[in-house]
Amino acid sequence: MCLIVLAHRMHPDYPLVVAANRDEYFHRPTAVAAFWSDAPQVLAGRDLRGGGTWLGVTRQGRWAALTNVREPVEGAAARSRGLLVSGFLRSQDDPQHYLARLARWGYRFTGFNLLAGDSRALASYSNRDVGVRVLPPGCYGLSNHLLDTPWPKVEQAKGRMHALLARRDFVPDQLWDVLADRQLPDVATLPETGIDRDLEQALGAIFVQLPDYGTRCSTLLSISREGHVRFSERRFDSHGKMQGESRFSFTLVR
Question: Which PANTHER family match (predicted)?
Fold first, then answer.
């Protein structure tokens, strides 16, 4: 997944709002979002190669999401980073404790950022940074560098989320338009990550569209003040055309 924007305790009706695009090679086998047969409390898509996921939530309101860190040379990972998301969703650890344990052996993975939250706290950890961060209420953005690195797509998506949250008629579905934005950023605003500038620009769009790689799915997750969870996933082909949509709603198990 290459873009996550979220509002943590920023809206009176929605303590959590997450909007995310997963960018991946189109040939990588993936299962659509569903409750997992081997972990019935977990709702998420699934990477059928590595066995983990990029974003998911549980019936108890635990949730996690992950992005890779873009690095000029990335070695082969012994294990899929998506297992770090499913590991939190399957566990009973609070976010801080899970990420603190992970910080002791996270060097075994190639670069990643992990967000983990529950009804009490939200925390983040990257194995390319120092320490676990417990996040105060706020609006956050994450792409393929550290949390809130001001890449154009991150800043644009965060700004639009802020504007929507300020509206009296805000509902999370308004964020679909943000996730669907295919406008390419100005080359002069792009970061230097060691890749070709034309590719950097293509990857700098909120919705990425390349022949063999791009936005495979968009996801909205929200939890209301009353404990009602909505999780929606839209899936796209290599031409950027929507191929399906799944919607789930349930009340948290306290």
Answer: SER/THR-RICH PROTEIN T10 IN DGCR REGION, TRANSPORT AND GOLGI ORGANIZATION PROTEIN 2 HOMOLOG
